[in-house]
Every structure is written in C-alpha cells, then in structure tokens.
Amino acid sequence: MRLALLVIAALQATAAQAMTGVVIRVSDGDTVWVRPDDAPRRKPVKLRLVGIDAPERCQAWGPEATAALSSQVLQRRVEVPTRGVDAHGRLLGGLLLPDGRDVSAWMVSQGHAWSPRFRRHPGPYAQQQREAQANRAGLFADPAAVEPWVFRKMHGPCERGAGVRSSSLPG
Question: 167: exposed, middle or buried (C-beta count within 10 Å: 0-12, 13-18, 19+)?
C-alpha cells in the first residue's frame, strides 16, 4: 500500500509536465501504455486519454475504436501532456504525435470516441464530435449507438475475454 502511495505521489508531482515515450500497448480506444524515454528500465505507464470516452471493448464499436487508436500510436513515439492521476492509478493526459497532431481529436473526428460534456461545459472535442455526427463517421453511423458511460451503467465493466455485447439492448 505504501509503495502504491509513493508511486501515485511521484506521478502527481509530474502531473503538470509532459513526457515523451513509445506506446507499447493499446488496451482499448482511450487507454494506452507508454514506455517513458527518460526511464527506459521503468515499468510502462498506463495512460487514460482525457477529453474522450471510447466504446468499451465488449461494446459495439469497441474493437474498431481499439484498432483505430492502435493504427495511430502503437510502437510510435508520442508526447504526453499529463494532467494528473485518476482513482484507478492511471496517468491522465493527451497524446500528441511527432507532427503535433492530437490523437484524441482524431479519434473523435473519425467517429471512434465521444467527447463527453462535463457539467454544463461541452467536451473539449465537441466541434469534432458535431462534425463526425453530421458526417455519420464511424460509430455515429449507427443511430442506436450508446455512449460508453450509459453502456457501463447498464452492463458494468467488460470482463476479460468478454465478447461484444449489443449496445442497444439492456441486460
């Protein structure tokens, strides 16, 4: 427990900074593992992309969202502007490619993720989401597409090895 607290404290101390590294694994459409450049022997860091919410692995469009994120970042060097650590111990931040492109903006604009609202404020990628919806891009082509936060409320978290569940049917 004490080690976990030390790790969280160390990550929070660097929360306002940016790190660079290589994405070595993509867990789903909004979570990756990054091996930091500054400490290659250190364990990879689990990063949750802020500002987007992609379908769950077991949700309709979840596998497509994961594949889309993988196609952009897997085994690529990225810059990670960090913003803190969540309750699950994941580093929170963005992903920028070497040419400066924001991966989260791309995920939303291609219809692989939502840009959820926060209280009364639109999500940071609300404009990209409106355009993707208007163009019926990706998951927005499905009129029955269910937001991941609604899906999680209906079904709970995905279990390891679970197949894709229908996003439109409760239960």
Answer: buried
pLDDT digits (tens, 9 = 90+) for 35-92: 999 876 789 999 999 999 999 999 999 999 999 999 999 999 999 999 999 998 899 9
* Whole-structure pTM value: 0.83
Name the 3-class secondary structure at 90: coil
* CB contact at 8 A, 61 and 167: yes
* Radius of gyration, alpha carbons of the chain: 16
Could you give the angle at the alpha carbon of 142 between the alpha carbons of 125 and 61, nearest 5°? 70
Positions marked active-site: 48, 56, 90
Token output for 51: 């500002």
Nearest to 115 by CA among 103, 129, 101, 134: 129
The answer to whether residues 143 and 168 touch, using CB atoms and an 8 Å cutoff, is: no
